[in-house]
Amino acid sequence: MTDFTLSDLDAIIAARATSADEKSYTRKLIGKGVPKCAQKLGEEAVEAAIAAARGDQAELTAEAADVLYHLLVLLKACDVPLQDVMAELQRRTAQTGLEEKASRPAD
Ligand SMILES: N=c1c2ncn([C@@H]3O[C@H](COP(=O)(O)OP(=O)(O)OP(=O)(O)O)[C@@H](O)[C@H]3O)c2ncn1[C@@H]1O[C@H](COP(=O)(O)O)[C@@H](O)[C@H]1O
């Protein structure tokens, strides 16, 4: 169990995007522009899908981490706040009425 969250990673990406560290992969990728960030997300998503189809759980775990990282980088490059995505997910959950049930202890 880890308490590391997408918000934690998002904050790191925001800091690295504007850092002076030329070794930062985040800074380099965002510097290449939105199309490159989008291409990387697509590649990582395909790799995750292949790992899942193969039934390779370890590979899927690694590729899923790449997908989440590259998705957050793309959102940053596009100036779309992670909070907006989370609000959209919460809105959809509220529509189904499942939000309260999820936070209530199981019967
Ligand atoms: N989670 C990640 C993460 N996941 C994947 N990657 C990088 O994503 C790259 C993907 O590898 P590829 O071989 O597909 O890409 P590449 O050939 O290096 O690059 P391209 O020429 O294809 O663009 C690798 O260089 C990985 O290091 C990540 N780089 C950074 N992070 C996080 O971002 C933080 C800041 O990193 P820096 O910006 O490098 O300081 C780190 O502490 C991590 O928390």
TrEMBL record:
<comment type="similarity">
    <text>Belongs to the PRA-PH family.</text>
</comment>
<dbReference type="Pfam" id="PF01503">
    <property type="entry name" value="PRA-PH"/>
</dbReference>
<keyword id="KW-0378">Hydrolase</keyword>
<dbReference type="GO" id="GO:0004636">
    <property type="term" value="F:phosphoribosyl-ATP diphosphatase activity"/>
</dbReference>
<keyword id="KW-0368">Histidine biosynthesis</keyword>
<dbReference type="InterPro" id="IPR008179">
    <property type="entry name" value="HisE"/>
</dbReference>
<protein>
    <recommendedName>
        <fullName>Phosphoribosyl-ATP pyrophosphatase</fullName>
        <ecNumber>3.6.1.31</ecNumber>
    </recommendedName>
</protein>
<keyword id="KW-0547">Nucleotide-binding</keyword>
<keyword id="KW-0963">Cytoplasm</keyword>
<keyword id="KW-0067">ATP-binding</keyword>
<keyword id="KW-0028">Amino-acid biosynthesis</keyword>
<dbReference type="InterPro" id="IPR021130">
    <property type="entry name" value="PRib-ATP_PPHydrolase-like"/>
</dbReference>
<comment type="pathway">
    <text>Amino-acid biosynthesis; L-histidine biosynthesis; L-histidine from 5-phospho-alpha-D-ribose 1-diphosphate: step 2/9.</text>
</comment>
